[in-house]
Write a structure and sequence with these properties.
Elements lengths: L1 H23 L11 H13 L12 H13 L10 H10 L3 H15 L4 H16 L7 H6 L5 H4 L9 H11 L10 E3 L7 H4 L3 E5 L2 E4 L1
Antiparallel strand pairs: 1-3, 2-3
Helix pairs in contact: 5-6, 5-9, 6-9
Length: 212
């Protein structure tokens, strides 16, 4: 009886896990599709500069064209259908609305005293980490990774970002990277960590040194 009960519990857990994966999976989108996922798609495309019309919940011809341009630019089949491969690439190169706010927060917290270029640079580091296999797979996980950003640790991350921080975040998402593909940055006046000295320097922007 106990053996049967154990097998039953395991079956329930496996079923629940599969169900959760199905819920989290992004749906296949194509011409004629409608819904909130289209809004997310259009926001991502618009933030990257591929889609310039108002965001709605309808996958029309303009959305298909934007998807095709994105696909061709990133080595995907340009069929205008947003399937698993296109979603995977989108989520590595773009952000949704909530993630854009998170990106603006970390920029404001880490670099609000820097010139605009220096703010874009911090955003670029987050986007570079998102695309790197050495870091987590989502913007939230990249930012919240333990000890990844001092502003998260000391609470400054929760300050309300200004419009310049949002502008810098959008620039970083569009691919503006003044850091030379940097994955880390630090202020050499404040940080004495020997670890940073082992990193390959790329650019010095404002008070921050950027490294690989």
């Amino acid at each position: 009886m106990n053996r049967f009960l154990t097998l039953f519990v395991l079956l329930v857990l496996v079923t629940a896990t599969v169900s959760n994966h199905k819920v989290e999976a992004s749906p296949v989108l194509k011409l004629g599709s409608k819904g909130q996922d289209i809004t997310d798609l259009q926001f991502r495309l618009q933030t990257m500069g591929f889609y310039n019309l108002p965001i709605d919940n309808s996958f029309g011809k303009a959305t298909r064209t934007a998807v095709q341009v994105f696909q061709k630019k990133n080595g995907l089949q340009g069929d205008g259908v947003v399937g698993p491969k296109t979603w995977a690439k989108l989520k590595k190169l773009s952000v949704n609305k909530k993630e854009l706010s998170m990106l603006a927060r970390v920029i404001y917290a880490e670099a609000r005293g820097e010139e605009y270029k220096g703010q874009v640079a911090v955003g670029a580091v987050v986007m570079n980490r998102l695309q790197s296999s050495k870091f987590p797979n989502t913007v939230k996980e990249v930012i919240m990774e333990p000890n990844a950003f001092s502003a998260v640790k000391d609470g400054q991350y929760w300050l309300i970002p200004n419009q310049t921080a949002f502008k810098a975040a959008k620039a970083a998402v569009k691919g503006n990277d003044p850091t030379g593909n940097a994955l880390f940055f630090f202020n050499p006046i404040i940080t004495n960590s020997a670890w940073f000295k082992t990193r390959t320097a790329t650019k010095k922007i404002g008070s921050h040194q950027f490294t690989l």
